Structure prediction request, 217 residues.
Amino acid sequence: MDMKISPSILASDYANLESELKKISASDLIHVDVMDGHFVPNISIGAPVTAAIKKVCDIPFDVHLMISDPLFYAEDFAKAGADIICFHVESDSDTKKTIEKILSLGKKAALAVKPKTEIDTVFPYLDRLSMVLVMTVEPGFGGQSFMEEVMQKITKLREMGYKGDIEVDGGVNPETIKIAAKAGANVFVAGSAVFKSENPSDTIALLRENAKESFTY
Ligand code: DX5
Ligand code: ZN
Prediction:
């Protein structure tokens, strides 16, 4: 299975997004964290900034909506250039309608679960999803510690035969990525680990290598 590294620009320098994106040209996806100050306490960036950076970057955008009403905003992010639109099963929007909306916009749909949410909540939608995001921190902030206790959700998905992408997000670094890959994850968000490193390109290569070595499914 392909191991994909998706650096989160939440940890980048927002004053220099174009040059920050150049530093991660070796990545497979670009993780865009969208926070509305309601679903999570912070406010990050929205569709206009996403559209602006899309113009200077060819790598597919993995947009993580940490917002209360993804159904309402899905179209804005599709127009802004999102390739994968990921929203939370805990949001206020109807899950099925939101997935169908994203698919009707010609985008890939992904569903995210917070650490305390049971993975069973995504089961009814698996055939319509290209990816499941298992949060390895409480959403809302970068730079938190990886929660190993959620790994059982990933293993559960793989053991039931789920062949789609499984993404982990939060506290991923060259060590914790091994734990996540061993459990069955194959898409890895890394904010601080990539942007706070001396050489983001080398870090991306190391992350990918460590994931490949540990992936067991
Ligand atoms: C957390 C965000 C993450 C965050 C990850 O709410 O969804 O994508 O940027 O940051 P690190 O890799 O620093 O934990
Ligand atoms: Zn994220």
User: Anything to note?
Assistant: The chain is about 35% helix and 20% strand. The first strand starts at residue 4 and ends at 7. Residues 8, 10-11, 31, 33, 64, 137, 139-144, 169-172, 189-193 surround D-xylitol-5-phosphate (ligand 1) (CB under 6 Å).
